[in-house]
Structure formats: structure tokens, C-alpha cells
Amino acid sequence: MRVSSSLLPTTHSAIRRSLDLWFDSQRIHPVVVGDFDDSGLMFQFGQSGEGIFPAPSVVERKIQTDMGVRLVGRAEKVTERFYAISVDEHPKHPGVIAIRDAARHEIFQEKRK
After folding, report:
1. What radius of gyration do the chain's Cα atoms show?
2. Whole-model pTM above 0.85?
3. Is 24 a member of any domain?
């Protein structure tokens, strides 16, 4: 199946490699009209109607609400990794703890402790 006007992350990104593997497994052949290093720029091109674009499901509602775009499908098997690196195994700084806890709750849907 051909998908026209696709906006994708650049080929050297991990998420693009994951998307390409998923496309191949689904026999989808996107017509790439733009490769982006900056996801915000990719979203802006998508908002202006230049093509469809991938976005993390954790920000799906925000993107739909803020940008007035709609969901056209899901790639459930495509995942993206996030890393938070700290020199402390158990951080003590209240700012670092707040960021960690917010990420766990907002991104990973864990219950606050």
C-alpha cells in the first residue's frame, strides 16, 4: 500500500529505523516528502497540510487539540525510548525529583507515590 505525502524523522534517528521496520512489516511504502531532525518543525508542516506525520501517543491529545490535526492510524509496535541520566541513584534535589515524578506520571502513567 502506498501512503502519499509522509513527513518523517530523518533516517539516522532511532525512531525512523523503528518506523521503517514497521512499514516493511505492514507492506507500507510511504512517499516521503520531508525528513526532519526537529519534530516540532515536522508537526508544523503536518499542521499546514503538507502530509501525515508520526507522533508519540503520549502527546496525541495535546497535538490534536493544539494543532487541529486528527489521528489517521496507529503503529502499536513502534516504540521510542526516553532516558533520564543522573549521577545520583536516588536524587535528593527537589527539582530533579519533581521532574522524575512528573515524567513517571505523565509519560508512563505510573501512579504517584
Report:
1. 17
2. no
3. yes
Q: Measured between alpha carbons, how far apart are the two ends of the chain, in Å?
A: 46
- 29 plus 56 within the same structural domain: yes
Q: Cβ atoms within 10 A of the Cβ of 38, count?
A: 10
pLDDT digit of tens for each residue in the chain (113 aa)? Answer: 666 799 999 999 999 999 999 999 999 999 999 999 999 999 999 999 999 999 998 889 999 999 999 999 999 899 887 777 777 778 888 888 888 888 777 766 654 44
30 occurs within a structural domain:
yes
Residues facing 73 on adjacent strands: none
Q: Where are the alpha helices (DSSP H) in 1-113?
A: 14-26, 39-47, 60-67, 94-106
